[in-house]
Design brief:
By secondary structure, the protein is an alpha+beta fold. The protein has a domain of 111 residues: Sandwich (Immunoglobulin-like). It is 34% helix and 17% strand. It contains 5 helices and 7 strands. Strands 4-3-6-7 form a 4-stranded antiparallel β-sheet. It has a 3-stranded mixed β-sheet with strand order 1-2-5, with no helix packed on it. Helix 2 links the parallel strand 1 and strand 2. It is globular and about 40 Å long. The structure holds 2-acetamido-2-deoxy-beta-D-glucopyranose (2 copies) and copper (II) ion (CU). The site of one 2-acetamido-2-deoxy-beta-D-glucopyranose has 5 residues, from helix 3. Keywords: Glycoprotein, Metal-binding, Signal. This is Mavicyanin isoform X1. One of its GO terms (cellular component) is plasma membrane.
């Protein structure tokens, strides 16, 4: 029995690691401004748009706009506050720009066309550091309590399937952790 139990333990650890890596590699896609896109028309409140999202590492931020009229510049906090487009960290100009978030913290974007940032065409993608799946350990703790999902309309990403796969990863991690405890 000891041999079989050991095998299960190895399997559990492997699955745990796999599901943990899933959480980083699979992301949701968020289109900035939703149907309005990246624009100065209609006074889109990008601060409000971002506030309804739960951004995570691995998510993809999609900027859709007419490249004749707009662009996307990633800037520092100081430049973001001042709407200063003179020395961006990165500039995107295709009109259909996808940016994958790879780190926690603030990711600040503005439109570099004069006057546009001042009129509100700027967005702060803030990825809050959250507790991920527990690391493999000999003394497993009880599984974390699932928080209720946010309102589907306001906060749902463009493609829900990715989120589903990732949540599946979390579920496997939790299940394996419990399994470890019983072997
Ligand atoms: C904009 O940023 C650049 C580089 O950081 C700086 O040299 C310049 O003074 C800034 N301009 C304004 C108007 O703040
Ligand atoms: C924009 O990019 C996305 C993802 O790369 C792609 O699926 C979509 O077809 C593109 N749309 C246009 C209009 O190019
Ligand atoms: Cu613009």
């Amino acid at each position: 029995m000891a041999f079989a139990a050991g095998n299960y333990r190895v399997l559990a650890v492997v699955l745990l690691v796999l599901s943990a890596s899933f959480q980083v590699s699979v992301g949701a896609v968020y289109k900035v401004g939703d149907s309005a896109g990246w624009t100065t028309i209609g006074n889109v409140d990008y601060k409000q748009w971002a506030a309804t999202k739960n951004f995570r590492v691995g998510d993809v931020i999609l900027f859709v706009y007419n490249p004749q009229f707009h662009n996307v510049m990633q800037v520092t906090h100081t430049e973001y506050q001042a709407c200063n487009a003179s020395s961006p960290i990165a500039t995107h100009t295709t009109g259909n720009d996808t940016i994958t978030i790879t780190t926690h913290g603030h990711h600040l974007f503005l439109c570099g066309v004069p006057g546009h940032c001042q009129s509100g065409q700027k967005v702060d993608i803030n990825v809050i550091r959250t507790a991920l799946a527990p690391t493999p350990s000999a003394t497993p703790s009880p599984p974390p309590v699932q928080t209720p999902a946010p309102a589907p309309n306001a906060a749902s990403p463009l493609y829900n399937s990715n989120r589903l796969v990732r949540d599946l990863g979390t579920a496997i991690a939790v299940a394996m952790n419990i399994l470890c405890g019983f072997i």
